[in-house]
Amino acid sequence: MRVSSGVATLVVLVLLVVGVWPAKGDLSPSQCEQEKRLLVNACRAVVFGQKPSPNCCERVRVTHAECVCPSVTPKLAALINVQRTISQIQGCGRTVPRNFKCGSVTTPP
């Protein structure tokens, strides 16, 4: 089964977004777009079943939630396995907060 690049990009965002902490301070729309682009480029292989690379993990640790959470719609959230996502994020050395709401995804208590 082939995944289109647009869907793959959004799925990467959804896969990694629940491990992204809220930022302190405001980012411009162009800064948010740049962060999303860097995250997608670094973590694209995750969509195809690979483990996050060191570069992907670094992006997961530094990307701001307010830049990616608006992309997490119920339709996209239905495509992910939240437990698998949490395991991947924790494998990157990031703690996933309980009951963290990002778009339409809330992490388990």
TrEMBL record:
Does the keyword Signal feature in the UniProt annotation?
yes
Pfam short name (any one): LTP_2
Q: Is the keyword Signal in the record?
A: yes
| Domain Bifunctional inhibitor/plant lipid transfer protein/seed storage helical, chain residue ranges per copy | 27-102
Q: Where is the signal peptide?
A: 1-25
Give the keywords, sorted. Answer: Signal
UniProt xrefs under PANTHER family: BIFUNCTIONAL INHIBITOR/LIPID-TRANSFER PROTEIN/SEED STORAGE 2S ALBUMIN SUPERFAMILY PROTEIN (PTHR33286), BIFUNCTIONAL INHIBITOR_PLANT LIPID TRANSFER PROTEIN_SEED STORAGE HELICAL DOMAIN-CONTAINING PROTEIN (PTHR33286:SF7)
Q: What is the name of the protein in this document?
A: Bifunctional inhibitor/plant lipid transfer protein/seed storage helical domain-containing protein
**What species does this protein belong to?**
Acer negundo
